[in-house]
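Submission checklist for the structure archive. All mandatory fields must be present; incomplete records are returned to the submitter.

[x] Identifier: ATP-dependent RNA helicase
[x] Organism: Corythaeola cristata
[x] Residue count: 433
[x] Sequence attached
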Amino acid sequence: GIKTAILVGGMAAQKQERVLNRKPEIVIATPGRLWELVKERHPHLSNLRQLRCLVIDEADRMVEKGHFLELSQLLEILNDSQYNPQRQTFVFSATLTLVHQTPTRVLQKKNAKKMDKKTKLELLMEKVGIKGKPKVIDLTRKEATVETLTETRIHCNTNEKDYYLYYFLLQYPGRTMVFANSIDCIKRLSSLLTILNCDPLPLHANMHQKQRLKNLERFAERESCVLLTTDVAARGLDIPNVQHVIHYQVPRTSELYVHRSGRTARAANEGLSLLLIGPDDLINFRKIYKTLEKSEELPFFPVETKCMTSIKERMNLARQIEKAEFFNSRAKQHNSWLQQAAEALEIDLDDDMFMGKKASEQEESQKQKMLKGMKKQLKHMLSQPLFKVLMKTKYPTQSGKLLLPQTSVGISESALGAMSRQQAKKKKSIKLN
């Protein structure tokens, strides 16, 4: 049969070399690790010029200026004068034909070109080395997102995002991906949600590859789970049955919004994308909305305000605990390092040099007692039910195939069900008026 090999960074290079020694017909690789093995002159990669097929996934990102230098070096080898003229080259991306409005400051520069779909594709073809007239197959809608995706939003203050995120995770359990723009934000959310017993799985570039893969496996195995991630997981991941994508911070570009949202509603399944929009996110949100040429405004996600007081109490207490634990941990690390350095240099230190000042045993005991009390209080809060569950029911999908019985608020329904119910009410209200 046909043999395949996977070459990725962060994994043992020796093992991947052994896989290449089997002479696989298909090699799937990240640019960095492939270039490393090409430089080491592995025999199986010695004649890349005679490739029959070259496939570049997420092509627009791969050839973007300032990214994946190794791919540019590989393409130079692949496209020199000795390349196979019969080679077929395929490029894929959900945002290949997505074009931003060129900023005025860029257009004012000498020889600046206004970017359109044709120009973008021509530049891409030139970089990739596709000669002649390529066949372009565009399966994307004008909006760039799939029809089975329900897109929605919540406008709130920045400090309220934690409340709405926690509310959503409790009210609508399932496989949920939460995206943020920075690693620090992911770490903070991971600490908070761990304190609140949500058992989150973090994923970001500062983690070892093995830990990343481990967390992805856990996320794929559990029916109800939350993955907190930066945009390292926005592209190229195919995790089955992701029901919700939450943009804790609005992405900086339309491409990122499309790719993040594309982690759900895959293979004709339905999914929900929720934007948490704070005052700082409005500029990015408007840019995305304009680029994607949305014909209608994004609907607001329904929130049951009755339980928000309890949500806020829990979250505020969790924040206090997280802040205290973070400071204690940081202070201990700093003071320990300072003490070791002083001992090595055989010098005495003033108490003022210690972080948070050098606390007496009594003060330290009092702090721990207070922290223990807050944890006990939170444990009691978490033991109390927030939502009144009357019965379980199927939700009406966007296509309307499943119907929701007429019942009172508090039912355990899906996020899509809640959206459909709100949209139905809105339509009914418009008809009555």
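[x] Structure attached
Curator remark: The chain is about 40% helix and 10% strand. The radius of gyration is 26 Å.
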